[in-house]
Amino acid sequence: MAEIEMEQNALIISETDRTGVITFANDDFIRYSGYNWNELLGKPHSILRHSDMPKAAFADLWKTVKEGKTWNGFVKNKTKNGDFYWVYATVSPITFETGEIRYLSLRRKPTRNEIIKYDTLYKTMQ
Amino acid sequence: MLDIGKKDYRLIKEAIENCRNFVFETVNETSIEARSSHSRINNLLGDLNRFATEYKTVRDANYIQAGMLALTVFRAKTGELTNVSMAECTVHGNAVLKETTNFYNSLMSRLKELFLEIEDGFDRISHNDLRQPFKSDGWEKDIKKLNSHINELQDIIAEQYCQQLSTSLLLQRNTLDLSQYSEELSSSSNEQASSLEETAAALEELTANVSANFAKAQEMVNIAQESKIAAENGSIIAHQSFEAMTEITTATEAINQAVEIINNIAFQINILSLNAAVEAASAGDAGKGFAVVAQEVRNLANRSADAVNQIQDVARTAREKSNGGLKTAKSMIDSFFLITQKIIQTDEIVRDVANSNREQMSGISQINDAVNQLDQLTQQNAKTAHNVASLSNIVQDLSDGMYHEISQKEFDGKARVLAEVR
After folding, report:
1. Which of B83, B115, B147 is the last residue of a domain?
2. Closest-CA residue in chain B for A68?
């Protein structure tokens, strides 16, 4: 499966509820994931999860955000047709006026060195 | 003066380059290792590493804040007005971003106030109160314009309510009149119908009378015709009897003349018998028998003369009578002529009467048709009056409903309209 490389200025924004179900995705999210908005709304964010990703990485993510902290990390995502793309993600809990908590996720382009580093690291974690 | 070795210099240069790449986001992560053999260099490298870590916190905070702002703007675009939470980490974040978030949140608060004001306004309108204008305190330009448009709309609605109110009041009054008129129409139609019924009955009687008159006149025409024929027959018979009388007179005259001749002959025979007696006397006995015969002849002559006298008497009487008969026959002819004239006149008059009767009949038939038409029209009128009455009831209900509906609303000009119309 081919790798899709993000553009330098691309910024993927998405929002999920507390259980990880997608409540918002911007145009770059749609562009790189290959899904359209109707396919994404109400789906779990895990539809993007690539089998190469170690479980420990997501466990760390959830642990961090549930503590109310911001999580940073490199993630290999799977597109709708099975291709993949690497992102540098910043995930943070956000609290609404109503008290509802959701998770905001921002993704930028990682460098090639970062990709190689984490691709290698994650393979050792499998 | 502290001079540093080549290795340390490279270490510091690498660390600075690393920080630069991190700040300019060409890399996402940095790790500066304090690998110098000099503790003071390691201190500096540790400072740089701390700087990078602190900067990462700020960078993440800014990213998250900007992301939240983007999300909230997106929600506002779809119609959901919410504030952007100020993330805890934003304490370290960019002042412009914080201020933008504050501005955005105060804009949202103001917009919510505005929507609340508009919502309240529409709620008042939906609860029938149009007297309070929409406020746009503190708003300028577009929003102020929008509010003044809404107020204009409210004024227009109030104006329409005024018109509806006045219309419903007028309609109520007019339908009241209408139902009264339809009642009048209905009762006059009923009266008309009963008058027409009487008229029809009178007409029927009239028709019967005229028709009887017509039959009698027809009979009279027949009788006059028969009378005329009878009078003509009488006239013919009178002429015939006149002619017969004339012939009788002529015949009587002829009898008289014949009797005169017989009388002369009897006179001559008497003279002859007298002569014969004289001769017989002179012949003596020889003539005795002859004298007897002469006497007999004389007797016969005398008896003839007597008979003639009697005939003459009878003939005279007959002449007198036949003259009278003539006169009578003449006056009969005159009388029959007169009678015929009178009968002709009578016949003409009776025919005139019959014709008049016929005309009367056709006149009556026309009147009958007219009465029938009138009757139908009257029934139609009665039906129409009934329909108008039920329609006016419906309109009455509608206008009552309209008035009820509109009178529950409060709007500028309501009191004025009520005062004007009442």
Report:
1. B115
2. B88
What confidence tens digit (pLDDT) does each residue in A86-115 have?
A: 999 999 999 888 889 999 999 999 999 999
Domain boundary among B85, B115, B145: B115
In single-letter form, the type of residue at position B219 comes to E
> What would the CATH number be for the domain defined by A12-125?
3.30.450.20
Domain at B318, CATH number: 1.10.287.950
The structure tokens 């009442």 sit at B422
3 state DSSP class of B198: helix
Q: Do B85 and A108 touch (CB under 8 A)?
A: no
Q: Is B63 on the interface with A (CB under 8 A)?
A: yes
As a whole number of angstroms, the distance between CA B125 and CA B119 comes to: 10
**Is there a contact between A75 and A53 (Cβ–Cβ < 8 Å)?**
yes
Domain count, chain B: 2
Domain for residue B96, yes or no?
yes
pLDDT digits (tens, 9 = 90+) for B359-373: 988 998 898 899 889
Domain assignment present for residue B146? The answer is: no
Contact B85/A97, CB-based, under 8 Å?
yes
Instruction: Specify if B304 maps to a domain.
Output: yes
User: Same domain for B170 and B314?
Assistant: yes
Specify if B136 maps to a domain: no
Q: What is the β-pairing status of strands A22-25 and A71-78?
A: unpaired
Q: Which residues of B touch A114 (CB under 8 A)?
A: 27-29
Q: What is the mean pLDDT of residues B186-202?
A: 89
In 3-state terms, what secondary structure has residue B133?
coil
Measure the CA–CA gap between A61 and A75, rounded to whole angstroms: 11
Instruction: Give residue B380's Cα distance to chain centre.
Output: 8
Contact B68 A104 (CB under 8 A): yes
| High-pLDDT (> 70) share of chain B, % | 98
Please name the member of B27, B61, B87 whose beta carbon is closest to the beta carbon of A94.
B87
pLDDT greater than 70 at residue B87: no
Instruction: Answer yes or no: are the C-beta atoms of B354 and B218 closer than 8 Å.
Output: yes
- Closest-CA distance of chain A to residue B67, Å: 7
Range of the domain at B25: 6-115
Question: Are the beta carbons of A13 and B60 separated by less than 8 Å?
Answer: no
Amino acid sitting at position A81: N
Do B232 and B98 reside in the same domain of the chain?
no
Q: What is the pTM of this model?
A: 0.60
- Out of B27, B60, B67, whose CB is closest to A72? B60
CB pairs under 8 A between A and B: 54
